[in-house]
Amino acid sequence: MKSKISLLLFFILIFTSCSKNDIPTTENFETKVSEKVLNDLKYGPDAAHTLDIYLPANRSPSTTRILVFIHGGGWITGDKSDMKDYIPLLQKNLPGYAIANLNYRLAKPPTRAAFPNQFLDLKLALEYLNTEAKNFDIKAEFAFIGASAGAHLALQFDSVYDLEDKVKLVCSIVGPTDFTDPFYTGNPEFDTALEQLVDESAYTGITDLARAISPAHLVTKNNSPTILFYGKDDPLVPISNGRFLKEQLDASGVINNFTLYDGGHGDWENAENFDMQLQLKTFIEEHF
Fold first, then answer.
1. CA–CA gap between residue 207 and residue 213 (Å, rounded)
2. Domain spanning 32-287, CATH class
3. Helix or strand or coil: residue 80?
4. For residue 36, which phi and psi values (nearest 5 degrees)?
5. DSSP conformation letters of 97-138
6. 134: CB partners within 8 A, 6+ apart
7. Which SUPFAM superfamilies does the entry link to (predicted)?
8. What pTM value is reported for the model?
9. What does the domain layout of the chain look like in residue ranges?
10. N or C terminus of the chain: which is more exposed, having fewer CB within 10 Å?
11. What is the rounded distance in angstroms from the CA atom of residue 66 to the CA atom of residue 84?
């Protein structure tokens, strides 16, 4: 009983010895960071090197990681605005993450090839975000969410270019993974397309360029957790591409999830789109 009284007296003395101005308030300890959107930030020297970034409220450089959107368009068209409809969904489902939405240099045959230029653009973007992370109050760790050609870029970057392991997760929405697939090589225009998309001078000593730009052939145990979504009746990316990538990820012991929906190249029904959102939310929460 005596010890309890002594403790009580101790606290009374502590608090009564402080003036009103000396008593800590909640405001002294809270650091409120407001939500912010920054558009068309330059991350490289080309006019196409721009990104939008969505910074959540109460973000922290120790916990707020970055979801990176990469648009599609067959490597020759498309724009970051194509991905804007996804942003409110991700903000609602995953409010604690920052979101970066990228543009990159589009291929302009025959003057500019897609590969490796577009892979190098992703590298530039991550370097910029890494440099600016402190100013943005975010952590320089990334999850790639790519659609179609953008998913191919994300997968290839994770397999080949992410030497510092900054990419912790990849989502492929109908992304091509294997250009050695007969679906592509059997097309009479395939060789011409390959010549226009690939800068051969950047792949010195490599004879099989189709394989060199096929992320499914480049999987290792170091690949990041990967979630895949494909359509049964896709006229642009065969089911075999998604399944082959899953087989390679499984063989290398890489965490992955593969879902096949009714429909084509991402043009799925509301139920499938809702399922994709839920799966992606869960996968990111578990593995990022």
1. 12
2. alpha beta
3. helix
4. -145, 145
5. SEEEEE--PPPBTTTB-SBTHHHHHHHHHHHHHHHHHHHHT-
6. 61
7. alpha/beta-Hydrolases
8. 0.88
9. 32-287
10. N
11. 16
